[in-house]
Amino acid sequence: MIQDLVIAVVYIGYAVTVLLVFGTVLTWVERKQAAIMSDRIGANRAYVRIPFTQVKLVWWGLFHGLADGLKMMLKEDFKPDSYDRVGYALAPWVVFTPVLLVFAVIPFGGTLVPATLFSAVPAVADWFGERTYPLQIANLDAGILIVFAFSGITIIGAMLAGWSSNNKFSLLGALRAGSQMISYELIIGLTVLGLILIYGTLDLGQIARHQSGVLLGFLPAWGIVYQPFAAILFLVAAIAENKRIPFDLPEAESELIAGYYTEYSAMKMGLFMFAEFIEIAIIGALFTTLFLGGYNLPFMTDSGFVLPGGHSIELPHFVVVIVQLAVFLVKVLIVCSFQILVRWTLPRFRYDQLLRFAWKFMFPLALANLIVTAVVVWAVQAIGAV
Amino acid sequence: MNKRPYRRKQYWNRPTMTWWERAYLPEILRGLAITGGVFMRNMWRWITLRKGALTTYYPEETRADYAKGNRGKHILTQRPDGRPQCIACNMCATVCPAKVIEIEAGFDPNDPVHPKYPVRFEIDYSRCIFCGLCVEACPEDAIRMVKEVPNLPTYDRDSLWLSLDELLNWNPQSDVAKPYPPAPVSDKTR
Fold first, then answer.
1. Contact status, residue A208 vs residue A296, Cβ threshold 8 Å
2. Greatest pairwise CA separation for chain B in angstroms
3. Which of A66, A79, A331, B150 has CA atoms 20 to 30 A from the CA of B88?
4. What's the pLDDT tens digit per position in A36-72?
5. Can you give the pTM of this predicted structure?
6. What's the mean pLDDT in B117-122?
7. If you ran DSSP here, which 8-state letter would residue A313 be given?
8. What is d(CA A292, CA A284) in angstroms, rounded to the nearest whole number?
9. Three-state DSSP class for A66?
10. Which segments of chain A have a pLDDT < 70?
């Protein structure tokens, strides 16, 4: 049992590190990508000086995230005159914590066999014995339900922040956030239902494993191939769920100052921002797991590459694990970059357009997608093929 | 009360959308392709060690597109031997509306043609209004304004006083307004 604990601690450390690094680096990626998209240079002045020398490390402005974080920490925590103490203090954490927890059920790699990995050190290999661990913190049957449950808590945090600040802009932002997030939560659920019908499981690890195969001999059996329509709907709804431009009505700065966190300052405001950036990474990870084959490269299994011509390349276990971890991170980064591209391309919706878009356009489409999927799955099962 | 129902005003240039534009998604994809294309183009320039931005790094670079007649920083023209052409007549300091020019004259017995020369010539850029009157007032074409702007940002008010050394660093080899003869080779040197 102690072996399981060690592995779990290592996984949790890895996941938290990845998320915090993503949260910090994405602020930089967002600035730089926006700058390059609009023929600018972007933030490039913050530097770290190596002590006792005059060597200044600028590194294309990578340290701006660090400088921002430091500034947030050291700023005065400015509070409104009348506010609800408990709710006000609690809200940032209610927004921030579930975002981190969602990653617990997302598989970030294939199966880890410690005995093979540590075969050079017999003591460690013997200690682990025959145990194998999927690279996933919580190997739960109800993986997707956990994701929905935690993103539901985020809504409460936003509402709480708006309500406890005792500010009309905050309240308006919170109301907008509530209605918008609940609407789009529904659409995310409906789009994912189609995938659940196809794979027949709620376990994200199982879903990722299903996508390692090959379809029709050459196509990777990724979710986006089965459900291209649902993939687009999911991404749109997820961006709306994260309240980013073009769906940033709850914090529309030209209408509501900063929406539900108008009255927050210093690191409490930083937590809201940080949660938003980590959620970009979480959306990337979810989209990767559900639609882009998770940690799978095309034609790659846990033992190595199996090419369509009948060739196969065996790879040692540690290479496979590293490749899978890297492939997952690269896919997440690409999806994050796409979200940033969307954010710096499209203008903001009007509020009535936003809800009409959700309920009159995306909701019927998601339902239609679900029905078509259900009929096709039923027909395939009735024929008995596949 | 016979109130007419509200009818939206029709403009002569009311935009009409085709069904393709109305479908929304293709147009969004087109927009994403445009911005993504710009990103790719600029990123490729950065990767191949060129500049992928229109920005001029401010203190490090000077922009190349100042107008020809831009009134930027002052310079003092020089005689062929490098001495300032200025005769310290104080006309620029007199005409200056902001009173930023300070000149201290000196006497040079070795140069009987121009015995008066500036020992000290200072311009206070913290108050200069860049009107160019000093250039017009100068009888000797000794002070001019070039199109490049002075490097003004500083942490210290005192460093906005530019002295003779900074003003004399303009040293062209040929000049349209005034031909520079080669330096005299006589033994009567300074």
1. yes
2. 108
3. B150
4. 999 888 888 888 888 888 888 888 888 888 888 888 8
5. 0.79
6. 90
7. E
8. 10
9. helix
10. 217, 302, 304, 308-310, 385-386
Fill in the amino acid letter for B136: E
Q: Which residues of A touch B54 (CB under 8 A)?
A: 39-40
Rounded to whole angstroms, what are the CA distances from A183 to A67, A75, A90, B124? Answer: 37, 36, 24, 64
Q: What tens digit of pLDDT does each residue of A79-130 get?
A: 888 788 888 888 889 988 888 888 888 888 777 777 777 777 777 777 777 7
User: Can you tell me the distance from the alpha carbon of A330 to that of A322, in angstroms, rounded to the nearest whole number?
Assistant: 12
Chain B hits for A37, Cβ within 8 Å: 35-36, 38-39, 42
Rounded CA separation B82/B180 (Å)? 11
CB B78 within 8 A of CB B123: no
Q: Tokens in use for A157?
A: 């945090």
Q: Would the pLDDT of B181 be above 60? A: no
The question of ipTM being above 0.85 is answered as no
Q: How far from chain centre, in Å, is Cα B105? A: 29
Report which DSSP code applies to A130.
Answer: T
Q: For residue B190, what pLDDT is reported? A: 47
Tokens of B155: 């942490």
Residue A264 class from Cβ within 10 Å (0-12 exposed, 13-18 middle, 19+ buried)? buried
- Residue-wise pLDDT for A171-184, tens only, equals 888 888 888 888 88
Instruction: Name A222's Cβ contacts closer than 8 Å, sequence gap at least 6.
Output: A211, A291, A292, A293, A296
Instruction: State the pLDDT at residue A292.
Output: 86
Q: Report whether pLDDT(B146) > 90.
A: no
DSSP bridge partners of A57: A48
Tell me which DSSP letter residue A249 carries: G
**What CA–CA distance (Å, rounded) separates A264 from A194?**
40
Q: Do the chains contact at A39 and B42, CB–CB below 8 Å? A: yes
**What number of CA atoms fall less than 13 Å from residue A205's CA on the CB side?**
17
Residue B106 CB contacts under 8 Å (≥ 6 apart), including other chains: B88, B116, B117, B118, B119
Determine the Cα–Cα distance for residues A229 and A191; give it in Å rounded to an integer: 9
Q: What are the distances in angstroms from CA A324 to CA A119, A301, A306, A313, A316?
A: 20, 10, 15, 15, 13
Both tokens of A93, joined, read 């954490």
Residue A158 near residue A178 (C-beta atoms within 8 A): yes
| H and E: helices and strands count for chain A | 15, 8
CA separation for the pair A99, A217 (Å, rounded): 38
Q: Does B119 touch chain A (CB under 8 A)?
A: no
Residue of B31, B34, B42 with shortest CB distance to A36? B42
Is the Cβ pair A40, B53 closer than 8 Å?
yes
A312 φ/ψ angles, rounded to the nearest 5 degrees? -145, 145
A341:B35 CB<8 A:
yes
Asked if B107 is an interface residue toward chain A (Cβ–Cβ < 8 A), one would say no
Whether the bond between A246 and the residue before it is cis, its omega within 30 degrees of 0, is yes
pLDDT of residue B177: 56
Q: Do B38 and A39 touch (CB under 8 A)?
A: yes
| CB neighbour list of residue B96: distance below 8 Å, 6 or more residues apart | B133, B134
Are the C-beta atoms of A245 and A343 separated by less than 8 Å? yes
